[in-house]
């Protein structure tokens, strides 16, 4: 393959709080890894990145620190984020260095210019020559096959690991948007606290995530409310291993207050849209994307609170990266959705 072919190649990156996904031109999604880094504090070296690092989570000796370089969708550990992204980009390209790779990276709509600069600098230092940013909900709308290029209002609620992005997009742009720093990781933390407070049992985030996926529910329904799951952890009083059976209804009650904050943000966005777009939404409804879209009953709850039809995207986990991929493959037609950073 000659250098000219290399030049046309682009890389799409969904650098998420929980997971990083990478898309290569003409190849599709080539990488899906946890956004986790393990480093040895004694000699300041990186030990593992991605799923290998995640396997050490909460099982590591004190000299090894396992951390997430992103929180709430933005970079909090600059050097770690750069090392992680460089590693993932090399892994995605199977070790070969692409000449002048064009990189498109998603960013939360609530990001400040400083946070956006950090994102583009991390990509540049990881090997990008041209860096473009795309609003996360706009990428999610493209990935969910919504007609973003047309002057039609489309509403997307993208619930990731660190943020929930709510936007109305039309004619290749974001009309109204809001980003709330409540998402999948927040749900996990709430489940940990609930089990500790109500069952005197200490559980880790991974166990909480299993609870969320298996019996997490946010809307009353006999089948979901009565679902049960036995989990193990450490008893608070004795410090010995123990287990407890959880029920869907108690998880629904534990999550209610936090879910209400996401609903409030959705209603705020709906209040700000022009009347013409409101008419489109009555016809088209709302599309939910991201891992959080899989919470049982979330579509029913949003529909109940807004009076609009709610659809869960076909592949909610991949919508953002698929949207970025669509821009890479149709760069000339869709370039207008991007913000050039470098």
The name CATH uses for the topology of the largest domain is Nucleotidyltransferase, domain 5
Distance from first to last alpha carbon: 27 Å
| CATH homologous superfamily heading of the largest domain | ATPase, nucleotide binding domain
- Count of helical stretches: 13
Portion of residues in beta strands equals 25-35%
Write out key terms for the chains shown.
13 helices, single chain, flat, Nucleotidyltransferase, domain 5, 40% helix, 342 residues, five-stranded mixed beta sheet, six-stranded mixed beta sheet, disordered N terminus, Actin, Chain A, domain 4, alpha+beta
Describe this structure in words.
Helix content is 40%, strand content 28%. Strands 3-2-1-9-10-19 form a six-stranded mixed β-sheet, with helices on both faces. A five-stranded mixed β-sheet has the order 13-12-11-17-18, with helices on both faces. Helix 6 crosses helix 7. The longest helix is centred in the C-terminal third of the chain and has 25 residues.
């Amino acid at each position: 393959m000659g250098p000219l072919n290399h030049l046309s190649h682009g890389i799409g990156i969904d650098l998420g709080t929980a997971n990083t996904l990478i898309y290569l031109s003409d190849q599709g999604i080539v990488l899906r890894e946890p956004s986790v880094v393990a480093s040895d504090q004694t000699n300041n070296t990186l030990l593992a990145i991605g799923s290998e690092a995640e396997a050490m989570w909460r099982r590591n000796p004190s000299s090894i620190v396992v951390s997430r370089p992103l929180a709430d969708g933005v970079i909090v550990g600059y050097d770690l984020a750069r090392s992680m992204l460089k590693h993932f980009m090399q892994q995605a390209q199977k070790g070969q260095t692409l000449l002048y790779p064009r990189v498109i990276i998603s960013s939360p709509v609530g990001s400040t210019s400083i946070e956006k600069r950090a994102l583009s600098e991390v990509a540049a230092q990881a090997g990008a020559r041209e860096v473009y940013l795309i609003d996360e909900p706009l990428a999610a709308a493209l990935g969910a096959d919504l007609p973003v290029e047309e002057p039609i209002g489309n509403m997307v609620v993208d619930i990731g690991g660190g943020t929930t992005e709510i936007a109305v997009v039309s004619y290749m742009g974001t009309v109204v948007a809001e980003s709330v720093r409540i998402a999948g990781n927040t749900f996990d933390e709430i489940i940990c606290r609930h089990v500790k407070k109500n069952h005197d049992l200490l559980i880790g985030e991974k166990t909480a995530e299993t609870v969320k996926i298996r019996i997490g529910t946010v809307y009353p329904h006999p089948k979901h409310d009565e679902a049960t799951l036995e989990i193990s952890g450490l008893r608070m009083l004795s410090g010995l291993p123990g287990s407890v059976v959880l029920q869907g209804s108690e998880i629904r009650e534990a999550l209610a207050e936090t879910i209400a904050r996401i609903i409030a943000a959705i209603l705020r966005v709906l209040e700000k849209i022009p009347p013409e777009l409101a008419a489109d939404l009555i016809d088209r409804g709302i599309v939910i994307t991201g891992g959080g879209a899989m919470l049982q009953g979330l579509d029913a709850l949003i529909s109940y609170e807004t009076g609009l039809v709610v659809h869960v995207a076909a592949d909610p986990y991949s919508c953002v990266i698929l949207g970025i991929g669509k821009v890479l493959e149709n760069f000339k037609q869709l370039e207008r959705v991007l913000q050039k950073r470098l």
